[in-house]
Amino acid sequence: MDPNFLPCFLLLLCVVAFADAGSVGVNYGRIANNLPSAVKVVNLVKSQGLERVKVYDTDPAVLKALSGSGIKVTVDLPNQLLYSAAKYPNFARSWVQKNIVAYHPSTQIESIAVGNEVFVDPHNTTKFLIPAMKNIHQALVKFNLHSSIKVSSPIALSALQSSYPSSAGSFRPELIEPVFKPMLDFLRQTGSYLMVNAYPFFAYESNSDVISLDYALFRENPGVVDSGNGLKYFNLFDAQIDAVFAALSALKYDDVKMVVTETGWPSKGDENEVGASVENAAAYNGNLVRRILTGGGTPLKPQADLTVYLFALFNENEKDGPTSERNYGLFYPDQQKVYDIPFTVEGLKNYKAPSRSPVSGGQQVSAPVRGGVSKSTTGNTWCVANPDAGKEKLQAALDFACGEGGADCRPIQPDATCYSPNTLVAHSSFAFNSYYQKKGRGMGDCYFGGAAFVVTQEPKFGVCEFPTGY
Question: Which residue, 112, 197, 121, 199, is CA-closest to 154?
Answer without folding.
Answer: 197
